[in-house]
Design brief:
Helix content is 40%, strand content 23%. With 163 residues, the protein is of the alpha/beta class. The protein starts with a helix and ends with a helix.
């Protein structure tokens, strides 16, 4: 009888862990703050609620990230991109001067580039590779995500499925 109780207890524990993961996958914006590359101000992710948001995790050293951010910059000018906030997040290991250089060199005028001090957001989303893109609806609920660079046309198709 003890083996059966242990087995049932183990199954219950697994279900509780899986249930907690399912809830966190659909959770709204975390309360973490990002640091803007433009002026060094803090941006609270919860302040992004009310606007559909594309959150892109990237590295200034990643050529695929550069490609995707330039495509997102293009997308922001298209009709489907109007009213969508695009926030690019890099790890906290990069200085503000590096982030400002990325904004300038990559000509990112509509994409908000931010640092993630302490990498709390990277850890929270379990980002292992970049670029990693997450779409949130206007209520701040995570709708979908994908790994890897995408063209503006692919991003437009992705947004059509979400909106």
């Amino acid at each position: 009888m003890r083996k059966r109780e242990t087995f049932l207890f183990g199954c219950l524990a697994v279900l509780l862990v899986l249930g907690a993961f399912a809830v966190s996958a659909e959770a709204a914006f975390p309360s973490n703050s990002l640091v803007s590359a433009r002026d060094g101000s803090e941006i609270s992710l919860s302040s992004l609620q009310g606007t559909p948001t594309i959150l892109v995790f990237f590295s200034p050293l990643c050529p695929h990230c550069r490609t995707e951010l330039k495509e997102l910059e293009k997308l922001a000018r298209w009709p489907i991109g109007q009213g969508i906030r695009i926030v690019a997040v890099t790890s906290g290991g990069f200085s503000q001067s590096v982030l400002r250089a990325v904004v300038s060199k990559w000509e990112l005028n509509r994409v908000e580039v931010c640092g993630d001090p302490g990498n709390a957001l990277f850890k929270g989303f379990r980002v292992k590779q970049v670029p990693f893109t997450v779409f949130f609806d206007a209520q701040g609920n995570r709708r979908d995500s994908f790994l890897g660079a995408a063209s503006a046309a692919e991003l437009e198709e992705f947004l059509k499925q979400q909106i």
